[in-house]
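Supplementary Methods, section 5.1.

A reviewer requested that the exact input to the structure prediction be made available. We therefore reproduce it here, unchanged from the version used in the analyses.
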Amino acid sequence: MVKVLHVTTEYPPHRTVGSLAFQVRDLVSKLSSDNEVYLVHPADFEGNYMDGNIRIYTVADRWFSDVVAYMHFLLVGVLSRIPYVIPKDIELIHAHDWIASVTARVISQRLKIPYIVSAYSTEPLRSGNAMNLLNLTIRDWEKYAFSSANYVIAHNRPTYESLGRDYGINAVEARSINDIEAIYQGISHQRVHHGQSVVSSSHK
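The structure derived from this sequence is encoded token-by-token as follows.
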């Protein structure tokens, strides 16, 4: 059993923008059967609640028309709360998509624990390879956060191919929950036998 903190920008019922919320909940619910799972997501309130076996903390937020500004706002909110409410012996951070991955990277550095990323899409796919200033900025942040992770897990073939083609990332294509469980166990094993060195040993 691994103690894992999941970071996501969407989770039902308190923050549902699109299908990501339900994809994350389905995945995390399955992982909570064999792991001790904590999760943080933005909402209209700050609090905590249980969803089955999942211990959930919310961070109150507000939307910005500039998604990059929102990313920074959310990062500050999460950092001001989460390190003080999660267990001190949390082993791993699992982020879902790019905004959450930026937050996970900073928490990872602060707590000196590894982080992995679940990628469901990429900015080149979402934007149709648009090259305006906003798209290019998001691409830079996304590549930065994904490239620093110990593992990047692609949840579909187009994302897997885009990660390699557009970002040069050798992702793991998840075909079942067992693929993710194997990553959890591998990182936990490394931490037991090699201490904190696993934090900087990214899988590229």
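DSSP finds seven helices and eight strands in the chain. These observations are discussed further in the main text.
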